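Technical appendix A lists one of the benchmark inputs used to test multi-chain prediction within the project. The record comprises three sequence entries:
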Amino acid sequence: MNKLRLYCGIALILLASGLAAQSSDRTITIIRGYDDPFRISIVPFTWDGPGSAPSEFSEIVEANLERTGQFDPLPRDQMRSWPTRRESMVFREWRLLNQDYVVIGRAQPRDDNRVEITYELYDPYSERRLLGRSVTGDRDQWRQLAHRASDAIYEEITGVRGVFSTKIAYVAIEQTGSGRSHTLYVADADGFNEEPWFESERPLMSPAWSPDARQIAFVTFAPDGSSEVRILDLDSGNVRIVAERQGAINSAPAFSPDGRRLAFTSSRDGAANIYVMDLSNGRLQQVTRHWAIDTEPDWLDNNTLVYTSGRSGRPQIYRLRIGSDNAERLTFDGRYNARPRVAESGNRIVMVHNDGDGYNIATMDLNNRVLQVLTGNPQDEAPSLAPNGSMVVYASTQGGTSRLAWVSIDGMVENVMPSRFGNVREPAWSPFTY
Amino acid sequence: MSKFKLLQVMLVTGTLVIAGCSSAPTDDAGTAEDTTTETTEERTTGLMPLDEAEVAEAEAPEVAPTPSEDIVYFEFDSFALSSEARSVLDEHVAYLRHNADAVVVLEGHTDERGSAEYNLALGENRAKSVQDYMNLRGVENSQMYVTSFGEMNPAVAESNEEAWAQNRRVEIKYQN
Amino acid sequence: MRNKGNRRRPMAEINVVPYIDVMLVLLVIFMVTAPMLTQGVDVELPRVSTEPLPTEDDRENLIVSVTADQEYYLELGEESPQSVPLTEIQTFVRQILENNPGTAVLVRGDQSVPYGRVVELMVMLQQSGVHNVGLVTEPL
């Protein structure tokens, strides 16, 4: 009888906390997470300055860690105290609250509109400080500072480099009076700080980052309807056309790992084939020669491409060494495998996969060729890997609306990010930015 | 498989006839002959049995009526022309042959399913199917421009079978 | 992923003696001897003769002291603990149970404290969802 009551009580607590998490006004909805995440307390930071802080530093860090699914941050109303320095830390209190880690800190204004943020990471069991850092930046870099702190905390605990300071490029589509507007945005990895870079009434597609994260190649459509590849320079804001041909497709750009070449698809000679352009002189090399569709190239290394080909009758993924005619088919599971994207390590790809039950995101370990399906939505596409290989961002269409979503590379964690835009598509995760 | 063989036979017959026909450009026919059997599968989409084509040419009226439909539809992941699509295109063939200065843009589209870049190429293949068909029926290639928007410009912005069927299309757009 | 075994500091000196399952209030009350609980506020514990048993659980327990002047204290290892009202203890107990279900509470009451004052605390604990309450005593 006792035990029954106890279990009911625990079940109710779990249910209640689940409901509370869902009804919070965070922009990110967490669909799935790990069973045993790290319990971490991000104590609200104090602002030792006039007026109010630019925004809640600790909230940004908390949301970042929570989004990975590897962390279960303690809600601040569950904390007995909000220490900001070690002297006021009561370690037994955090042990009683079952916390594996505690982050405390403070922010204060500096000269010339700058701010300094000090943060410390503690293990309440060993009562040791694991990390203690001060970061300084402009007031308008507040979120960036929080992302930097999140990167450091994440890396200290998991041993894996954090990707909170990276960017995501995507295309937002809005219905206008006469048609649709398409805008290329670059946002922080958490979806905030979005900045428009290129707008068109005609579609935009396939943004792809240069390895130094300073350029984005993407696809626009000329007035005559032919697609063309452009490169946006993020330092200057300049946009130049690098591949165009009237009456033909020029699309699906991908920078080589050394940043010196651009692979793309063109139908300039009839069928859609893959070409590589030397960006220093514009010289073209045709890589595939096949009547069937060859498209969506990405680089395994500076000499090897993976791409989608319809040569077997349905789209499947192939690997080809540039200069060779010996295309090797990589995917055999499922009737549709397309749009491969290569992990930074070069030994894993993600793709769009269909085995008869909707279009999902899947991953394949190239060492053992095992394909694992990561998502279960009816219509997912455009996967792009985080530079640390931990997460995949993709576009998920449900009920006619396309939104960005994330899934961890093991399929255990899934998030959806509602957007203020009508439709968001074609996400591309940037390389590390520092 | 037998259907495939039949198509092959049809292709060979069609190619021979077209090669002898002065109005058909020879470069396209040559391409079809030189390439592999896999090419055959693609190229058959534009071909009709021999006598039907001759009848259509013989019965072409002096003044062609304005075509009633300017969209043709496709099956999923296919760029093969249905008989309905062919009858729509026959009207355009007649019109374009009698209006040599008329120019059309053949704009290929797909439904939203699958990968956007693959769909861009698939949309182009649909538009090229239409172009090949009309070219083989006597429309000059200089009268036709092929483009594709893939899945990016749906006619119906919804996610259901009906909307998808409406979106898998080639739009025939006359230029002024 | 996490190394739970080594992280928690065992409180080896606390031993559990025969416990009573009090059905009426759904409380498991047990008596503990705590000769090593030297830290914390000054409390003169009742002296009893018991046969100590080793604790199976090495997890952290919440310790609430009731001093001779009938004030409540949370034993958290703070340098200068302040007395806290019952409502604040209740808030903390609920936070603990939310995040650490099954945590036991040890009541460290001065032997001169009126019975009613201890019962008041125990009723609050029971209402907050605590299922295990230990009464800390001193061995003879």
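The interface with chain A takes residues 35-36, 38-39, 42, 77, 105, 107, 112-118, 120-122, 124-125, 145-150, 152-153, 157-159 of chain B (CB under 8 Å). Residues 110 and 151 of chain B are 5 Å apart (CA to CA). Comparable benchmark entries are summarised in Table A2.
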